[in-house]
Design a protein that fits this description.
The chain has 634 residues and is α+β, with helices and mostly antiparallel strands. Helix content is 50%, strand content 12%. It has a 5-stranded mixed sheet. The longest helix is centred in the last third of the chain and has 30 residues. The two termini are 34 Å apart. The N terminus is likely disordered.
């Protein structure tokens, strides 16, 4: 609806030496942990017990798989499933995408009808039937483990992890904290504790795994009821639909041109060495460029550069913003900034990215669909979202991401997505007319002309830069200080007072935007949350200006996130066979396909991404390009 109502498992193959080491490590904790496992067998179940607080689980044993299969042949409609894998070990290259399954836990009632099986031959027979709904906690992980193990994926499933994020976007979402908070489990055993006991007393680990399934089973009805009460089921179903898309995207991966990247790394290192020598020459001495204290001493004490910013600890700051503000005082400042940019590119990307590549030269970043409170994605291992997009070095690095032979990359992005969403919410006449006119309009020049009272033809580049920064910054709750800190690095010579005036003039030109933003605080104070177009919530009190800005930002950013996720699901189902959705970087979709299909895929991407949510009167515009590499598609 409109804003007025909307805001309203390790394989057990250890030799004797490793066993002895683990036994020595865990013996001191054995008695205590065994006691804890007995305590864990009595769980406070508020949903099933009215008068007594404890349920005593019967002693369980690992049945033969024929016994287990017979016992559960007439299982209920809902079953919680948890896979256990070998521990992750970065040194051995074991992580979420390749860890081997070592056990399967199933719970049919959240209590005694729960078992854990480590016999691989049993797993296929124990898998839930097609008419059962499976409850996971982190479905993406468990579905991935099942797929790697050759076990069937359930047709119907739910995810308490997604539900937890939607119900408390800033809380803890691990299964153990949730069991403690919502089920009254005093001290749930962690995986690390249970794994240390695995060889010494396997039953401790088995009970740990069974409890994971029990907790998951019991959390789901609580979370479902609360999501229904808060009107979050539509967003929950969207997040569920996104999960298989993300899994396919991570499996596909992005191909690197390792040879070209190695050549670029050598070139960049040579350039970094040259800039480092330049810094020393301009400073008149050698020093540690990676030490903030040494950099501060050289610039501020030796070279007389003024210090205009302090760290939270009261030290003189030499971060990017601080140095950008004093860039013109000495050539050494500019050299330090250039060195940092190129050194970061070399150390963070050029030297690291190839280490993530598989035998086919593809990296498989992990995309977290609920990595931010707004619902936006975060990325890790490696974080391709951090690759610079505007600098020449960043663009050159993006050219290292290539299509396989005979393939092409199709890259699509929304045009001014957040500003169009802002126009929809605010109904500002000037913004609406700009986006609904159907003609090409330079919004930033238009904004500058209204702010500075001059014809569009007379708007200077610095004035347009100011307007552009405000246009995009408004969706992030930009302040005059924030505007000042963003304009200075772009070479716009402004004062803090001028930035305050710029923002005032902006809101005079776009009064509807001001009215929309002003509506957030009272509604936030009244309800304690804001809601976006699709129903996603952000809970903040609104007692501080920062919280109000967070809420204003959330409305725009979360709507963009949900539009992108809806488009991901729509596009994934429409892509022709053999075409791979390989990455989503911010609002940018990257698809790899056979070259002869590229034009058709481009049309599909534009169609899927331009479809606006129900009720939107502001059209979405998508630009899509075809190239051999990521960089040339921008």
């Amino acid at each position: 609806g409109d804003f007025v109502s909307a805001v309203s498992a390790t394989e057990v193959n250890d030799d004797g030496k490793e066993f002895a080491e683990r036994r020595k490590e865990t013996e001191s904790d054995a008695e205590n942990l065994c006691l804890r496992s007995r305590i864990h067998s009595e769980i406070n179940d508020l949903d099933h017990v009215a008068e007594t607080a404890e349920i005593e689980f019967p002693e369980t044993r690992e049945e033969s798989f024929s016994e287990a299969h017979e016992a559960y042949a007439s299982a209920p409609a809902i079953v919680a499933l948890d896979t256990e894998t070998e521990p992750f070990d970065e040194k051995r290259g074991i992580g979420p995408r390749n860890a081997k399954m070592i056990g399967l836990a199933l719970s049919f009632d959240g209590a005694g009808k729960t078992d854990y099986m480590t016999t691989p031959e049993a797993w296929p027979l124990l898998m839930p039937e097609s008419d059962q709904t499976v409850i996971f906690h982190n479905a993406k992980f468990d579905l991935g483990v099942l797929k790697r193990t050759g076990l069937p994926a359930p047709i119907a499933w739910e995810d308490t992890l997604i539900a937890s994020h939607l119900l408390d976007e800033t809380g803890e979402h691990g299964l153990k904290p949730l069991a403690k908070e919502h089920l009254g489990i005093d001290d749930p055993m962690t995986f690390e504790e249970a794994d240390r006991m695995r060889l010494l007393d396997p039953e401790v680990f088995s009970e740990y795994a069974r409890n994971d399934a029990r907790y998951t089973f019991r959390l789901w009805p609580k979370f479902r009821r609360e999501m229904e009460r808060q009107g979050l089921m539509a967003v929950y179903e969207l997040e569920k639909a996104v999960t298989p898309v993300v899994m396919a995207m991570e499996d596909a991966g992005m191909k690197l041109d390792i040879q070209q990247m190695d050549e670029m790394r050598r070139e960049v290192q040579t350039e970094a060495d040259n800039i480092e020598s330049e810094v020393y020459e301009r400073a008149g001495c050698r020093f540690d460029l990676h030490s903030p204290q040494k950099v501060a001493a050289i610039l501020f004490d030796n070279l007389g550069v003024p210090s205009k910013k302090e760290t939270k600890g009261g030290q003189r700051s030499v971060d990017r913003e601080a140095l950008e503000d004093v860039r013109g005082y000495h050539p050494a400042v500019d050299a330090v900034l250039r060195y940092r940019e190129i050194d970061k590119l070399a150390s963070t990307f050029l030297s690291v990215l190839p280490s993530f590549a598989d035998e086919a030269g593809r990296i498989h970043p992990e995309f977290k669909q609920l990595g931010a409170t707004s619902g936006r994605f975060s990325c890790s291992n490696p974080n391709v979202q951090q690759i610079p997009s505007r600098s020449e070095l960043g663009k050159k690095l993006r050219r290292m991401f290539v299509a396989d032979e005979g393939n092409a990359l199709v890259v699509a992005d929304w045009s001014q997505m957040e500003l169009r969403i802002l126009a929809q919410y605010s109904k500002d006449p000037l913004l609406l007319s700009t986006y609904q006119s159907g003609t090409e309009t330079d919004l930033h020049t238009l904004t500058a002309s209204r702010m500075f009272g001059k014809a569009e033809a007379d708007v200077s580049q610095p004035e347009r830069a100011v307007a552009k920064m405000i246009n995009f910054g408004i969706a992030y709750g930009i302040t005059s200080i924030g505007l000042f800190n963003r304009l200075r690095p772009q070479g716009v010579d402004v004062t803090l007072e001028q930035c305050e005036l710029f923002i005032t003039d902006y809101f005079k030109a776009y009064s509807g935007v001001r009215k929309f933003l002003d509506q957030v605080e009272p509604r936030l104070r009244e309800r304690g949350y804001v809601r976006n177009w699709s129903g996603r919530r952000r809970r903040v009190s609104g007692r501080t200006a920062r919280e109000v800005r967070q809420a204003q930002n959330f409305i725009i950013q979360s709507t963009a996130a949900d539009m992108a996720k809806t488009a991901m699901v729509r596009l994934h189902s429409a892509l022709p066979e053999g075409t791979r959705f390989i990455a989503m970087v911010h609002d940018e979709f990257i698809v790899e396909c056979r070259r002869e299909l590229a034009e058709d895929v481009r049309a599909l991407m534009v169609e899927a991404m331009q479809a606006a949510p129900d009720g939107f009167i502001v059209p979405m515009v998508v630009e899509a390009k075809i190239a051999d590499n990521w960089g040339d598609a921008k």
